[in-house]
Design goal:
Elements: H1 9-21, E1 32-33, E2 37-40, E3 84-87, E4 94-96, H2 105-113, H3 116-126, H4 133-138, E5 141-145, E6 149-157, E7 160-168, E8 173-176, E9 182-185, E10 190-191, E11 197-198, E12 204-205, E13 218-221, E14 229-234, E15 240-244, E16 253-255
Parallel strand pairs: 1-11, 2-7, 2-12, 3-13, 4-14
Antiparallel strand pairs: 4-5, 5-8, 6-7, 8-9, 9-10, 14-15, 15-16
Length: 266
C-alpha cells in the first residue's frame, strides 16, 4: 500500500504480525442488529440481491497464513467483540489477478441505475446521492477477500435496503473504498457496511464451507489515512501486486514481497 507519507518499518511490522500471526483482536461496539448471522459462500447471492452478479474473478487467492486458535465449532458464531480486526491498508489483506478487476464496475453501474428504487436504496446505505452513484462506484477498488470476513450486508426488499449480519467467504469479490473497507459485494451488487454487534446469539443461517472457523473470521477497519494504492496477492502465481485505488486495474504492476512475507505464502 502507498500513501502520501511512506509507512514506517514499525507500522509494516505491526501489519505483518496482525496478518500472519492471527493476533490483534479488538472490541467492536456500537449499535446492535438482529441476532442471526448469514454465512455466504463466494458465489452465493444471498436473500433478495440488489443486482445480478458482476463478479469477474474465479480464482481464489492463497489464504493468509494464520496460527491455530481455539475457536467455536463451525456451526456456531463467534461474538463480534472477540474477532480480529485488520486495517484496510494492510499489505496482503486482499488478493486479485494482475490487471483484471474482480468486479465489472460498469455493469454494476448499469444494473443499479436502471432501477430508480434500487439506486435510491443503495445510495442511502452508501451515504451518497443517487445521481453520484456512478462516480462513487468508479472510485472503489475491485479486490478479492483472503479471509472470511464479517460485514453488514443489505438485501433489497419492499423497495428498501434491509441490513443483516453476514460472513463472506475468502475468495469473495468486493469493491473497497479509499480506506480499504469493503463497500460492495460483486456477487449480488449489495452495499456493505462494517459489522455491528447483534442483540442476541441467533445462531447462523447457511451451510459452513470447508475451512470455515468462526474464531478466524476477521473484521476490516478503516486505514488511518486515505490510501492511493493497495498491495495485494496475485491469485494465479502468488506474486505481489500494487493496485491503484479506483475501478481500473489495468495499471497493476508487480512489486517485491515485503521482507516479512518471504516464504509465507508458499
Amino acid at each position: 500500500m502507498r500513501r502520501s507519507t511512506a509507512p514506517s518499518i514499525a507500522v509494516c511490522a505491526l501489519a505483518a504480525a496482525l496478518l500472519l500471526a492471527g493476533c490483534g483482536g479488538s472490541t467492536h461496539g456500537g449499535r446492535r442488529a438482529g441476532g442471526e448471522l448469514v454465512l455466504q459462500p463466494v458465489a452465493d447471492q444471498g436473500p433478495d440481491p440488489f443486482t445480478d452478479s458482476t463478479a469477474t474473478s474465479t480464482a481464489t487467492p492463497p489464504p493468509a497464513t494464520r496460527t491455530q486458535q481455539s475457536a467455536p465449532a463451525a456451526g456456531e458464531s463467534a461474538a463480534l467483540s472477540v474477532l480480529r480486526s485488520l486495517s484496510g491498508g494492510t499489505p496482503g489483506l486482499y488478493g486479485g489477478t494482475e490487471r483484471v478487476g474482480s468486479c465489472d464496475v460498469e455493469r454494476q453501474i448499469g444494473q443499479l441505475t436502471a432501477d430508480r428504487r434500487k439506486a435510491r436504496a443503495f445510495a442511502r446505505v452508501a451515504g451518497v446521492s443517487p445521481d453520484s452513484l456512478p462516480d462513487h462506484l468508479r472510485a472503489l477498488t475491485p479486490v478479492v477477500l483472503r479471509n472470511d470476513t464479517r460485514v453488514t450486508n443489505h438485501a433489497f426488499r419492499d423497495g428498501r435496503a434491509t441490513g443483516y449480519q453476514s460472513v463472506l467467504q475468502a475468495g469473495t469479490a468486493v469493491l473497497v473504498d479509499n480506506r480499504g473497507v469493503p463497500r460492495v459485494r460483486c456477487a449480488c451488487g449489495n452495499p456493505l457496511k462494517p459489522p455491528v454487534e447483534t442483540k442476541d446469539d441467533g445462531g447462523t443461517r447457511g451451510r459452513p464451507w470447508p475451512g470455515y472457523r468462526p474464531g478466524e473470521v476477521i473484521v476490516v477497519t478503516p486505514a488511518p489515512e486515505v490510501i492511493t494504492s493497495l498491495t495485494i496477492v496475485n491469485a494465479v502465481n502468488k506474486n505481489w501486486i500494487e493496485r491503484r485505488t479506483g475501478h481500473d486495474a489495468h495499471h497493476d504492476y508487480v512489486v517485491p514481497p515485503p521482507v516479512w512475507a518471504t516464504g509465507s505464502l508458499s
